[in-house]
Amino acid sequence: MQTTDAAYQVLKKHGDAMDVHDLLDETLALLGLDREASTAARIYTDINLDVRFQYRGKSQWGLKDWLPKTPGKSGGSGASRDREEDDGEELEEDEG
User: Which of 50, 58, 51, 62 is nearest to 15 (CA)?
Assistant: First the structure.
């Protein structure tokens, strides 16, 4: 199983954003791997590069699947890496 697939399963089962350390611990446990710095760093890098995941700020990671679908957003060039814009959208939602 790919490390990102395992992390995806962990988040899907949890149902909400998780602290990166908890996400890494549960992912490593699912894969049957020991917590070594190099292994945890590789998984964290893989999560960063996988478009299915979204950084929520304050060490929290969630799934892009959980975001509401916004009409008019085509997901064009660079849309998968717009974390700063996603964080701004999150702040706007909190104001309501």
Answer: 62
The total number of residues shown for the chain amounts to 96
Q: Do 64 and 54 contact (CB within 8 A), yes or no?
A: yes
Does the pLDDT value for residue 75 go beyond 80? no
Domains, the chain, with CATH or none: 3-95 (1.10.10)
**Confidence (pTM):** 0.70
For residue 27, the model assigns a pLDDT of 97
d(CA 55, CA 46): 13
Pick the closest to residue 6 from 39, 60, 43, 35 (CA basis). 43
Q: What would the DSSP string read from start to end of 49-91?
A: H-TTEEEEETTEEEEGGGSPPPTT----TTGGG-HHHHHHHHH
pLDDT interval class at 90 (50, 70, 90): very low
Give the per-residue pLDDT at 71: 77
